[in-house]
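Our preliminary data section would be incomplete without showing what the modeling component actually yields. Below, a chain of 133 amino acids is followed by its predicted structure, encoded as tokens that our downstream tools consume directly.
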Amino acid sequence: MQEKESSLTPPDLSQTKEHGMQIVSIKGKLTYGTTQEAKVRLKNLFDNSADGYIIDMADVEYIDSTGFGLLINFAKQIASIDRKMALIVTNDFIYDLFKISKFHLVFPVVKTKEEGFKVLKEQIDLPLPLRDY
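Predicted structure:
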């Protein structure tokens, strides 16, 4: 029973702003049972005055389809104000999930915050537009 409770613990979200970009750091799991609370927290942190958004997933332990859905919905929200986002993913397993789901074709997936700043400033178009995902 204890393990089930801990698996439903919502991830921690925190935010900072650097170089005009909002950086949202996520720590924990983005899975069924945790994403609704994460969605509310992300909405509360959202700063529509930012020039772009970096989602730091370096401390994300696991992500499932509901976690991917959370990211897609956030991306659509920021696209509606003509902004872009980059994702920091350092975990090889999670990066493989991003490749399998084709997320790396929709969003820049980088290893560091500095790479995130660079790709957002360069406004690189990726092969798969968000509207077609």
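The CA atoms of residues 7 and 106 lie 29 Å apart. Residues 2-132 form a domain with the Transcription Regulator spoIIAA fold (CATH 3.30.750.24). Preliminary results of this kind motivate Aim 1 of the renewal.
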